[in-house]
Design brief:
- The complex is a heterodimer of chains A (442) and B (308).
- Chain A is built from 16 helices and 14 strands.
- Chain A has helices at residues 5-26, 42-63, 82-92, 108-113, 115-121, 151-166, 185-188, 191-201, 218-227, 240-250, 267-270, 293-301, 319-342, 350-358, 364-370, 413-431, and strands at residues 28-35, 70-77, 125-126, 144-145, 176-182, 204-210, 231-235, 258-260, 281-284, 361-362, 379-380, 391-397, 402-404, 409-410.
- By secondary structure, chain A is α/β, with parallel strands linked by helices.
- In chain A, strands 5, 6, 7, 8, 9, 12, 13 and 14 form an eight-stranded mixed β-sheet that branches. Chain A has a two-stranded parallel ribbon with strand order 1-2. In chain A, strands 3-4 form a two-stranded parallel sheet.
- Chain B has 308 residues and is mainly α.
- Chain B has one domain: ABC transporter involved in vitamin B12 uptake, BtuC, CATH 1.10.3470.
- Helix content of chain B is 72%, strand content 0%.
- Chain B has helices spanning 2-32, 39-61, 68-94, 102-124, 141-147, 153-175, 177-187, 189-194, 199-225, 234-245, 250-270, 283-294.
- In chain B, helix 1 (2-32) packs antiparallel against helix 9 and helix 6 crosses helix 7 (177-187).
- The longest helix of chain B is centred in the N-terminal third of the chain and has 31 residues, at 2-32.
- Chain B starts with a helix and ends in a 14-residue tail after the last helix.
- Classes of the chains: A alpha/beta (442), B mainly alpha (308).
- Chains A and B meet through helix 2, strand 6, helix 9 and helix 10 of A and helix 1, helix 4, helix 9 and helix 11 of B.
């Protein structure tokens, strides 16, 4: 076999090119975004994914990536549809030099649909503020991270907040609390916790379901008018939220007595309700506002260069936009932690990222360094605890913007953790899973 | 008893608003025999276009935001957009499908739904917006004081607007040349063409009128719940109304709307607690199904007789 000089040069150039391409790709960390920007919840998705992408863009522009590893991403439209979510998961999982490093579908339905797949493919699934609550037990769910605060912690924190308004939880005895909930698995998620707390504190809980999509609630609010509850917890999603506020106004129920959950507490919920939303209070694990240094850095390094993701720039600093920034912070911080162990300046596999998430600690000092003091709670993830914080702040809508009206309010940690472990143990038994021994994990 | 009356009246008023959406379906079905699956998307498109114009017009014209000038100009432009959309639908989607089986036309309107939804969001963005028509959404105080019954001023006025629209359209169908032509076209495309009725003009007119009805429905529903994608779901409220009232009858749409509105609210309150609640979304369909068993053509629909 003869090799001509010309042929050898061509082959050599090709090999060099391939190596160079490989090297360039090796300096990038891929994040697959199963997003939704159209469909019934498109307005929520546009703000949240806008904030998330802007944060990653800012890390690239300001810091040159994470220890020199540039962040890359690709969106796949799910339309909040489970089947499309699974399709997006499959489409994204092998993208990038090391595959998709983390999957965050922003949908409880999609979370359940890919629960088994992420464990099989070794891709961590981070579900911030949604998903399966008992996955907070990392011994049973090593690949799932329902971070910051779970629904159960939120429900408990809401009761504590209402208690504080009444002068202490012991004053809740004999009070009436109505729970107006989206009639779905998501809406029913709080029932067990609220029932247990009702037994403990002696309040009377009335659960009132609203059928999807919730664009007509006259019957429910007439029931509430008849019941005359001291407080109403609004556990809604999408059009159900502004409709609830409008109908509450129509039936004369004071909005100051309605306490919403974080999926009922964004500008997307209050602006469509107009004046009817004035005085309404909602929980959240991140406040709204543009004055946080991290948001100002995004303005400076991304929007000033005309590289922002938000079509409507007025929504920068909104509740959902800032929640997207929180997603970005958590993803990037987990990469930093993982790179400390597996090598700085190297892209990470899903398995390595999982280690990063499981050893993530964002304390007050780190929050200050990130320009995010008060922007999100301190948190620490461990092998056992994939939740990390378990607290929320409360904000009140003044007709034009959200104003923070509380400090971080914790849920009943002991009660919630006990329920999580009980539920996770039942799941492990059903599926034949042997929980990890966290003392042996490094 | 007071509570029962409160629920009943609230349900009847909601029913009129369901009938308003159903009316758009009836108009197109009467004139073309097409079940327009895109009616909900048209309601969304109309409301979003109106709100979009109210946002951009102050910048374009120097008019005061929220002023009457902006409102009426936005209304006129949104109406013009709906008419253009209607005519374009007739030219691009329906005309090539003349004399095709009804299922083909129905499938075409499903495609149209996705197109209209996407077009609206591509032009105006996906943000949820508020819409104020300047009508107070509070209880009528003298009824509340004297009878302890809550009746929303907004719902009353909205129902009034809807009823005026129903009367005008019923008169149009019964007593005008255009109305007769519309009915002739609905009966048989080819026969109508053979006697000189300009099919394409009739269809353009009816899609334009359906666009106008969608705009009114969009403004009322948008003002009630905000202007967002979920406006497309109002069509789901109209379907049982149509099954019950008949696809070809304007009075049927009203009566159907009233029955559905009142029954779903009463069922939610009095039956809901026994079956876990949240039955408002499916109860009207069950009710409509029972009506179908007794009167397949609906309460006021035309009886269809096939000669063998």
């Amino acid at each position: 076999m003869k090799f001509s000089l010309r042929k050898s040069m061509v082959v050599g150039a090709a090999v060099t090119g391939l190596l160079a391409t490989g090297y360039a790709a090796a300096q990038e960390q891929f994040v697959g975004l199963a997003s939704y920007r159209v469909g019934p919840f498109g307005s929520n998705g546009a703000s949240l994914y806008g904030g998330w992408i802007d944060y990653m863009q800012m890390v690239n522009e300001r810091d040159g990536g994470v220890n020199g590893v540039k962040l890359t991403w690709e969106e796949c439209e799910t339309e909040y549809n489970n089947a499309r979510g699974v399709e997006c998961y499959e489409r994204l999982k092998n993208r990038g030099a090391t595959g998709n490093s983390v999957f965050q579908p922003l949908s409880t339905g999609i979370t359940y649909s890919v629960l088994d797949r992420v464990a099989q493919d070794k891709i961590p699934m981070v579900t911030i503020g949604y998903g399966r609550t008992d996955a907070a037990d990392g011994r049973v769910f090593p690949w799932v991270f329902p971070m910051i605060t779970t629904y159960w912690s939120q429900a408990s924190a809401i009761v504590n907040y209402i208690g504080s308004k009444e002068g202490g939880n012991e004053k809740l005895k004999g009070k009436k609390i109505a729970l107006l909930f989206h009639d779905s698995a998501y809406g029913r998620e709080s029932h067990a916790v609220l029932d247990k707390l009702a037994e403990r504190y002696g309040y009377e809980l009335t659960k009132i379901p609203v059928a999807n999509p919730g664009n007509e609630q006259q019957a429910q609010w007439l029931q509430i008018r008849q019941l005359r509850p001291d407080y109403t917890i609004l556990w809604g999603w999408g059009v159900m939220n502004p409709t609830a506020l409008r109908t509450a106004a129509r039936t004369g129920y004071p909005r100051e007595k309605i306490v919403g959950v974080w999926w009922s507490g964004s500008e997307e919920d209050t602006i469509p309700a107009g004046d009817a939303a004035k005085g309404y209070v909602a929980a959240g694990f991140n406040p709204a506002g543009k004055n946080f240094p991290v948001v100002q850095d995004i303005q400076k390094h991304v929007y000033a260069k005309n590289r922002g993701n938000m079509e409507d720039k007025d929504r920068v600093g909104s509740v959902l936009y800032n929640r997207g920034v929180v997603h970005g912070i958590i993803t990037v911080e987990a990469m930093r932690v993982a790179q400390e162990k597996f090598g700085k300046g190297k892209p990470l596999t899903g398995e390595q990222m999982r280690w990063g998430f499981e050893n993530l600690k964002i304390d007050e000092k780190r929050l200050a360094a990130l320009g995010a003091s008060g922007f999100m709670p301190e948190m620490q993830i461990t092998c056992e605890d994939h939740e990390g914080a378990g607290m929320v702040k409360f904000q009140q809508w003044d007709g034009a913007k959200w104003n923070v009206v509380s400090d971080w309010v914790k849920g009943d940690r002991q009660l919630v953790r006990g329920m999580i472990e009980e539920s996770a143990a039942a799941y492990a038994k059903e599926k034949g899973i042997t929980p990890r021994d966290c003392s042996k994990e490094m | 008893m007071t509570f029962f009356l409160e629920v009943l009246i609230g349900g009847l008023l909601s029913g009129v608003l369901y009938a308003l959406v159903a009316l758009g379906f009836v108009l197109i079905f009467k004139a073309s025999g097409v079940f327009n699956f895109a009616q909900g998307a048209m309601v969304f498109f109309a409301a979003l276009t109106f709100v979009g114009f109210t946002e951009v017009l102050p910048g374009w014209t120097g008019l005061e935001p929220g002023s009457g000038g902006v409102f009426w100009l936005a209304f006129a432009l949104a109406l013009a957009s709906m008419i253009v959309l209607g005519i374009a639908t007739e030219k691009v989607v329906l005309r090539p499908l003349v004399n095709q089986p009804p299922i083909t036309l129905f499938m075409a309107t499903i495609g149209l739904t996705f197109f209209v939804e996407g077009l609206a969001q591509a032009i105006w963005g996906a943000n949820a917006r508020g819409l104020s028509l300047g009508i107070s959404d509070e209880p009528v105080m003298w009824i509340l004081d004297d009878f302890d019954i809550i009746i929303s001023k907004f719902d009353l006025i909205a129902a009034g607007i809807a009823l005026v629209l129903f009367v005008v359209l019923a008169l149009l169908f019964q007593y005008t040349r255009v109305g007769r032509a519309l009915r002739a076209v609905a009966d048989d495309h080819q026969a109508a063409l053979s006697v000189g009725i300009p099919l394409k003009h009739i269809w353009a007119i009816v899609w334009g009128v359906a666009g106008f009805v969608a705009l009114i429905a969009g403004l009322i529903w948008g003002s009630r719940n905000g202007v967002q994608f979920a406006l497309t779901f109002t069509a789901l409220k109209a379907l049982p109304v149509l099954i019950l009232g008949g696809f070809t009858s304007v009075p049927g749409a009203i009566i159907g709307g009233l029955i559905i509105g009142a029954s779903e609210k009463l069922a939610e309150i009095y039956i809901g607690p026994f079956v876990g609640g949240g039955i408002e979304s499916w109860f009207p369909y069950v009710l409509a199904m029972f009506f179908l068993l007794v009167r397949p053509e609906g309460l006021f629909g035309e009886k269809h007789i096939d000669r063998v």
